[in-house]
Amino acid sequence: MTKTRILIVDDDRLARQLYAEYLAEAGYAVQAAADALEASQALATGAFDVVVTDLILPDQDGLSVLAEAKRRDPGVEVIVITAVERVEPAVRAIKSGAADYLVKPVPRESLQLSVSRCLATRHLLQENALLRQHLALVETGQRLATTLDRGRLLPLAARALCETMLARGALLLTRRPDGRIERAAVEGFEPGEAERIYGQALAQLEGLTGRESELEIGGETFRLLLAEAAGEVVSVCLLRAATRDALAAANAQFLSSHLALALQNINRLSAAEDLAYLDDLTKLFNLRYLHLALDREITNSRQTGAPFSVLFLDLDRFKEVNDTHGHLVGSKVLVEMAGVLKGCVRDLDIAARFGGDEYVLLLINTDARGAMRVGERVRRSIAEHRFLAEEGLGLSVTACIGVATYPEHAQSKAEILERADRAMYRGKESTRNAVYLSTLEAPSVARTG
Q: Rg for the chain (alpha carbons), in Å?
């Protein structure tokens, strides 16, 4: 166990020896200096817990020693001793940061008691500082763990890890549920520099299993912090010029565990939201999500002028499929139909089940002419497909499709759905297995199935 270190500063050799003996008897490690210069040299070579200094020294006064000690270590305790029994020097010393003021001659018990009180105060202040650090760490961890906005979470985590590890920069990477690693947040890097480091690090990150390690990138060593959830690495933080302090590393790992928890919660929430927006049978988007998507596209169209189109699709005589083959077969046809529809549109388009045997396709950045081409492709793909062929049925199904474009045919969400629905029903009243484009003069029609 390291002994408490005390520096005694006094130009009186006998006093130095006497104070040193008093404090050595109490079990402290004592070093002595004859003036302010020697005291400064001693303070430069190591940390002291308590400094005991005479107020009057040959080169400078004891208050300069006090100031030098506090500059090097604000937490050091300083006791000022003087032969002058006056109030003014004592007040000056206390105002300058002295912990105590003793008047010569100083009895053994008085000096030992004063030093003991100083050490108790220093210990209490250190404990309070440590407690505040722990409290701040816990609060940061809680803030990370309870943040469900990915856009806010990742920069917050990168900043916290950078500060905890006293690093000059932090590059945070995350692993998506599909296994893809992506750059998530940057702290303290230049944009181009961060991209370069990310590109070089990506190939080296596969297969990392240790909680902490280092990575060499472009001749520079980066400290790694891995965050795991359910045994899987969900994030990696690359830290530039980070401290090797064990406590800081433990604190950073504590924050990483809360980051992992937050990412896990975000993924779970995202999965739950996906389920809330998916049709139970076909796994296409449901009507709830379709309304959100339409609101979003209307806002975007008003801001950018880009059109979008809606295809309203209804299967022809689908009741006959249920009546002939049963509702179980009918449900299987609806599921297989979802696959046909998704194969006809782009990934950015929205395929939704409107209800029953009705579907809606939302075509992003697509005008009426483009939507008609897609509608014809969908109609033909359905007509040529043999449903439940693997089960030996090979059913033929056709559909009527109505097309409406925003803002050409409608100015609201309800109106564009109604226009597409009207256009679809024109096909129902004629040949079926057809695609019709909305016309502004088209009358409302009564639905008959």
A: 38
Q: Residue 361 and residue 354: Cα distance in Å, rounded? A: 10
Within a domain: residue 449? no
**Residue (of 253, 230, 263, 267) closest to 154 by Cα position:** 263
User: Taking a C-beta distance cutoff of 8 angstroms, is the pair 366, 269 a contact?
Assistant: no
pLDDT at 177 over 70: no
Higher pLDDT, 46 or 11: 11
Please check whether residue 316 lies inside any domain of the structure.
yes
The whole-angstrom separation of Cα 248 and Cα 176 is: 28
SS (H, E, C) 30-81: EEEECCHHHHHHHHHHCCCCEEEEECCCCCCCHHHHHHHHHHHCCCCEEEEE
Within a domain: 281? no
**Range(s) of the domain holding residue 190:** 146-276
The pLDDT-based confidence of 9 (bands split at 50, 70, 90) is very high
Q: Are 97 and 125 in contact (CB under 8 A)?
A: no
Give CA–CA dist 171/185, Å, rounded.
6
pLDDT bracket for residue 179 (50, 70, 90):
low
Task: Find out whether 381 and 343 touch, Cβ atoms under 8 Å.
Answer: yes
pLDDT for residue 270: 76
Q: Where are the beta strands (DSSP E) in 241-357?
A: 308-315, 350-355
Hey, what are 428's tokens? Answer: 């129902």
Residue 320 lies in a domain: yes
Tell whether 256 and 312 lie within a shared domain: no
Among 227, 257, 276, residue at a domain's last position: 276
* H-run or E-run covering 147: none
255 with 315, same domain: the answer is no
Chain Cα centroid distance, residue 306: 33
The model's pLDDT over 126-171, given as tens digits with 9 standing for 90+, comes to 888 778 888 888 888 888 888 888 888 889 998 999 999 988 888 8
CA 366 to CA 306: how far, in whole Å? 8
Residue linked to tokens 């033909």: 380
Please count the helices (runs of H) and the strands (runs of E) in the chain: 13, 17
The single-letter code of the amino acid at 30 is V
Regarding whether 432 and 291 lie in a shared domain, the answer is: yes
Same domain, 97 and 175: no
